[in-house]
Specification:
seven-stranded mixed sheet; 6 helices; redox-active center; two-stranded antiparallel ribbon
């Protein structure tokens, strides 16, 4: 079943490559419970099929980086990018995209969280395995307040401008 507006995010975990060691976070991949990360926060989340893929690299991630200050001005605490890649790949891609400190690059390496959201996209026939559908959503305290799911192969409703326009 696909997640919808009004739903609480499912239980699960995502990984993030941490560049700088700090209290509670070691250098390298760290795994976090989604419920703990979203508690009491307003988070703009967008998901995409894969790191380093053309639309994702040229449009999707750069749009959220460019508008990050406007998201913050509208009360968004964090911006997350989720993809079915491992934390090492997401960390490297985040560095290449200059997303460090702006967009949290969250890894769902085995597509477990993607499946829990009901947003899996089977690209096995193209040699890419199970991926995440392209989407964006606004989450407040773990509850979905806005949700924009793209049709396969499209980039029309999950862009940063659309989600930003949906914020009050």
């Amino acid at each position: 079943m696909t997640i919808k507006i009004g739903d609480r995010l499912p239980e699960g975990a995502l990984s993030e490559f941490i560049e700088v060691e700090s209290e509670g976070c070691s250098l390298g991949p760290n795994t976090f419970k989604v419920s703990e990360l979203t508690k009491g926060k307003k988070i703009a989340v967008f998901g995409l099929p894969g790191a380093y893929t053309p639309t994702c690299s040229a449009k999707h991630v750069p749009g959220y980086i460019a508008l990050a200050d406007q998201f913050k001005a509208k009360g968004v605490d964090e911006i997350w990018c989720i993809s079915v890649n491992d934390a090492f790949v997401m960390g490297a891609w985040g560095r290449d995209q200059k997303a460090t400190g702006i967009v949290r690059m969250m890894a769902d390496g085995s597509a477990e969280y993607t499946k829990a959201l009901g947003l899996e996209f089977d690209l096995t026939a193209k040699g890419m395995g199970v991926r995440m559908q392209r989407f964006s959503m606004l989450v407040e305290d773990g509850v979905v307040k806005q949700l924009n799911i793209e049709q396969p192969g499209k980039f029309e409703v999950s862009n940063a401008e659309t989600l930003l326009g949906q914020l009050g």
